[in-house]
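Possible regression after last week's pipeline update?

I re-ran a chain I had predicted before the update to compare outputs. Posting the input and the new output here so someone can diff against the archived version. Not blocking, just want to make sure nothing changed silently.
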Amino acid sequence: MSAALAGPDADPLLGDRQLGFSFAMSHLLGIAFARHLTQVPHIAELDFESLVRLVSPATQQYLTVTMTDEN
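New output (post-update):
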């Protein structure tokens, strides 16, 4: 999955964090979809700084997940 999102060169850089990266990317793509394509009102109306402040804790949490966490 990470190769599809970040290119084939990402796997060595991500190491055992590929699962967390996949969660983070899918979350961010969902936010972008809701904000720009479907224009979900509360998400589309947020200023950029507020959006980053609200979304970044979840994204950072995802990035701590490793492949060994799935077992």
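Follow-up from reviewer: compared with the archived run. The chain has a mean pLDDT of 84. Marking as no regression found.
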